[in-house]
Amino acid sequence: MKKSRELSVEKIEANLIDIHTREIYGAGIVIKDRRIVGITRNDNTYDRYICPGLIDAHVHIESSMLIPSEFARQAVQHGCVATVSDPHEIANVLGIDGINFMIEDGNRVPFKFYWTAPSCVPATHFESSGADLSASDLEPVIAHEQVVALGEVMNFPGVIYDDPEVAAKLTIAKKYGKPIDGHIPGIQGDDLEKYVLSGISTDHECVTLAEAKEKIRLGMKILIREGSAARNFHSLHSLIATDNEKVMLCTDDSHPDELLEHGNINKIIKMGLAQGHSVYDLLRCCTVHPVEHYALDVGLLRVGDRADFIVIDHPETFTVLATYIDGQVVYENGQTSFSPHSSKPVNRFRRAKISPSSVRLKQQGSKVKVIEVIDGELLTTSFTAELPVKEDCIETDAGRDILKIVVLNRYEENAQPVVGFIKGFNLKQGAIAASIAHDSHNIIAVGGHDLDIVSGINAIIDAGGGMTVVAEGRCTTLPLEYAGLMTATKGEQVAQLYNSINQKTKSLGCTLSAPFMTLSFMALLVIPSLKIGDQGLFDGDQFQLTSVFAG
Fold first, then answer.
1. Which of 511, 529, 531, 512 is nearest to 521 (CA)?
2. Do the Cβ atoms of 444 and 456 come closer than 8 Å?
């Protein structure tokens, strides 16, 4: 690749991957005042290739545990130039203040953050969150120029059964001409059709091809997701060839190790290339389609477009060598051109420590309901079990991998813990705890012994939020000083400590591929079938609280 500069004009020569004409040719690209002002074909062959910058069509920045400005520094290294980000994690903690923090911190760096207005804060009224955003609260958010959509409508019963508050939020989005993102796992038939007819136009929760096909038939666009815990690419990737215009790509929830070690949307492109998909089809899913659907001001390598593009080694290997945003080199030769400027931490954490006696569960029946984890999925199953009893309290059974799961309201100083039982973590000793517990982000912990569970919970309280593993009575903690969800620490250090905590967890016997990510979704009540929140065990199929005792 050759470059020449003349005042504010820059010319770049390379092989151009043209996603509009579906061909590759030598070209000279002229950039002036942040835009592409000329593209000239030539007969040369170069050792590098240029294509449009990648867009993550749905991501929760908070799941990276990095504040937006640091997330951007990591993302550009993988060719990502823009995201459509739903800040509903921090909104559940801090409300409008949390959304404003995300927008302001993102604007500190040269990256194209677009946002959606969180539609479900709280996700349900069967849990305690730090905020409650009504339709009137959301209108100024939806009107904001950087907010491009109403965020995923997880309250699908509210849509199906005509909840007036949900309807009001949909109406406001339509008033401002902004699309509405969906979240409707496993629903079919008339209920799905009503959901779509309400104006909701996307879904990123498809697990099976049949589910995705039905939603496409009804007019939805499918976001193929490949995150840390939810990985749906292999089930859905054939859509990239058969229904390309209806497909976008997203990561949704990715922990810091996933982002740093495996990448962002570029990892999905590599997976697609390995499956034999056309590079043009893949690139259109993460460039043209999100730009058109969300009306993003992101360039697509055409004359007049913003100069947002990446340089790669070859379309078969797709290694990112450089990233340009608005004509500015933000990543090249392994180095980013900017550093995050730490904002003042924001948080909401009002919680007194607890004692082991508070997580004991008095026997009220012969059997208990047990949440059963499915590794790599957000869905859970359940069963009933008879557990040992000691001093009239229900005990865990590590031999059968039935452990305690505890959720503690972090917004009320003296709220009592909720105790349930769970299978799938395989902890033979110790415990893990975190303040990342979708979507209200109360404190959640799993372990076999009350003392370890309480030690983990109290370590999170001491840190004002974070995640910890308790091994041999000692806590190793990753503090998350921003809303108990994120840190301003460099991503490389966060990933290193996160990996260390994960490895310690697995050394305690845990067999899950992503134990903390899985733990965080055990409190997500809107995903069936059995979950747990700070108000009690929740039956996601019946959409109501249920007793932990089966009889």
1. 531
2. no
Question: For residue 277, how many other CB atoms are within 10 A of its CB?
Answer: 18
For the CA atoms of the chain, what is the radius of gyration?
Answer: 24
Residue-wise pLDDT tens digits, 431-457: 999 999 999 999 999 999 999 999 999
Cα-based angle 372, 378, 382 (whole degrees, multiple of 5): 20
Cross-strand bridge partners of residue 431: 447, 470
Q: How many CB atoms lie within 10 A of CB 345?
A: 16
Contact (CB, 8 A) for 45 and 15: yes
Q: How many CB atoms lie within 10 A of CB 542?
A: 10
Specify the 3-state DSSP secondary structure of 153.
strand
Joined together, the tokens standing for residue 134 give 């009504």
Write the CATH number of the domain with boundaries 53-299: 3.20.20.140
Percent of the chain with pLDDT over 70: 98
What residue segments make up the domains of the chain, in order of their start? 53-299, 356-546
Burial (Cβ within 10 Å: 0-12, 13-18, ≥19) of residue 59: buried
DSSP string, 56-105: EEEE-GGGGTB-HHHHHHHHGGGTEEEEEE--HHHHHHHTHHHHHHHHHH
Paired tokens of 482: 């921003």
Record the tokens describing residue 209, joined without a space: 């091809």
**Model-wide pTM > 0.90:** yes
- C-alpha span between 267 and 485 (Å, rounded): 24
Task: Report how far residue 507's alpha carbon sits from residue 509's, in angstroms, rounded to the nearest whole number.
Answer: 5
Q: How many whole angstroms separate alpha carbon 59 and alpha carbon 65?
A: 12
Q: Which pLDDT does position 543 carry in this prediction?
A: 87
CB 272 within 8 A of CB 286: no
Residue-wise burial string across 383-404, b where 16 or more C-beta atoms lie within 10 A, e elsewhere: eeeebeeeeeebbbbbeebbbb
